[in-house]
Amino acid sequence: MSPRLVLVVAGLTVREIVRRRILWVLLALAVASVVLVGWGVDRLVTLARGQGSSEVEIRIGVSQVLIMIAFMFSFVLAMSAAFLAAPAIASDVESGTVHAMLARPLQRAELVAGRWLGLTAVIAGYTLVAGLLAIGAVGFVSGYIPPSPLVAIVFLAFQAITVLTLALALGTRLPSIAAGAITVVLFGLGWFAGVLGNVAVVFNAAPLAGLGQATRVLLPTDGLWRGVIYGLEPPLILLASVGRGAEALRANPFFADAPPPGAFIAWSGAWTILVLLGGIAAFRRREL
Amino acid sequence: MTDPAIETHGLRRCYGPTVALDALDLRVEAGEVFGFLGPNGAGKTTAVKLLLGLVRRTGGDGRVLGRPLGDRDARRRIGYLPELFRYQPWLTAWEVLELHASLAGLPSGGRHAEIDRVLELVGIASRAGDRTGGFSKGMQQRLGLAAALLGEPALVILDEPTSALDPVGREDVRAIIRHARERGSAVLLNSHLLGEVERVCDRVAIVQRGRVVAAGALDDLLGESEVRIRVTGLPSDLAVLGAFGPIVEDDGWLVVRPLDPERIPELVAAIVGLGGRVHAVDPARRSLENLFLEVVRDAPSPGEPAA
Hints:
- The complex is a heterodimer of chains A (288) and B (307).
- Chain A has 288 residues and is mostly helical.
- Chain A has helices spanning 3-19, 22-50, 55-95, 97-102, 108-142, 149-171, 176-202, 206-218, 221-232, 235-240, 246-250, 262-285.
- Chain A has one domain (3-285).
- The longest helix of chain A is centred in the first third of the chain and has 41 residues, at 55-95.
- Chain A is globular, with a radius of gyration of 21 Å.
- Helices cover 33% and strands 28% of the residues of chain B.
- Chain B has helices at residues 44-52, 72-75, 93-104, 108-122, 137-149, 167-182, 194-200, 218-221, 264-273, 288-298; strands at residues 6-15, 18-28, 33-37, 59-64, 67-68, 78-81, 155-159, 186-190, 203-208, 211-217, 225-232, 247-250, 253-256, 277-285.
- In chain B, the strands form 3 sheets. In chain B, strands 6-7-8-3-9-10 form a 6-stranded mixed β-sheet, sandwiched between helices. In chain B, strands 2-1-4-5 form a 4-stranded antiparallel β-sheet, with helices on one face.
- The longest helix of chain B has 16 residues, at 167-182.
- The interface between A and B is medium-sized, with 21 and 29 residues.
């Protein structure tokens, strides 16, 4: 594999996203959302103070709102990643652009790897900018900064990268619409199975809990989402998790008392590489 | 001795039970313009994709520029205009060529000048800075041609290069093909426009049902002369004229083929001797179109493969 050609394709991918104004639209939407969120949190904090809530209560409230916002952002991010990555190979094949490119000394693996690298750079950069803006805006109006904002942003980006990898890999064989739709459905199912699995742990429903675990291995998005929450959860709430009702708290899909284990993070990295390699292998066998 | 630009032996490609290419035997020499003809569905585009490694062979063998099919090193020296030419609509013409120059690994020093050269050659230099999304089909095809000619490749494969061009554009493409040959490139020209092929190609091959049914130098294939005579008042029995060659009546014309042009006066005298009134005499060489129609119609089953 030639790193130079991978970089050529990655650069082309970034240029496409910029030229087609997709990146600007996403950034404009992010800025608009941040303004709205800032305004909403500001109203909330003002109202709470007016009603005599303590600062601790306000911080806990704001932290939970922030987690909700992060959840919605993670969903938007996953959708964007899926719909950017699904056509990255598929629509080039559909339009015939790929024929002229692959007649050059460009290997199919380089095309897929370059696409992946370009998309990953865009999604990671976008997550960093939008995430910092949102956390910064909330911090500015409420004074609450989560304990590890960068950890949360890294897990958000990681989750989006797993989604884009899946969509890209599916798009090497499927039409872009199908690849995008399947990815979004799988992402939703993964989250749902994660929630169910947590509930099952609390109620000792072993088969269901096993299903939740298995789903996280097959599609690590929900497990990575737990990392986002962990980065945003204030220490006060973590304290609650050692007291009474801790079990019930763990069933909450917006709660995490520990970061995802190292082995899980390693597996998520391996999963991403394996799915990418699978996509490359599938594309190599494809007749154009 | 230089390797042939293209050499295939019994190259075969099936899609399930469908045979797209049966057994292609082809040889294109370095530096020649080769016409690759055949009716729709004969397997021409499949053959081109096999040569480029876009599709895998089911059987047979082949080499391009002395390397195995689809070889990366060979692809460095091939320019290709696909039948469905589409380029990134959000790039300018110049950027598309820059992308292709960089994929082809052209030395970055001369890239700029080379892009300007091919843009000038295909006549779209004035639109170099425009996005290709706004190009007409003809302009896009010219851009594709420019991409195929980047870096003076040893082999240029053109799949229907004039399908979107007007007569002026076609004339330009003929000039471009001749120019490429002069610079030492071999050209594989896949086209339906037989008049065009006839005007630029050194040799042709006609494929039908995935096999070559006729191949050779144009002069050899079209060498047979014929004469068409408009005549009235002839008796129905023309056996006497049979001595000149096979005779066919075609819409009021008497066609004798093959016939040595030297014997035309003799033939006319014989017709007059039979009481015929001669209105017109038209000596002609067979056109490639006639040859094509004969070969394709007369070969319901695949004929002997020719090289």
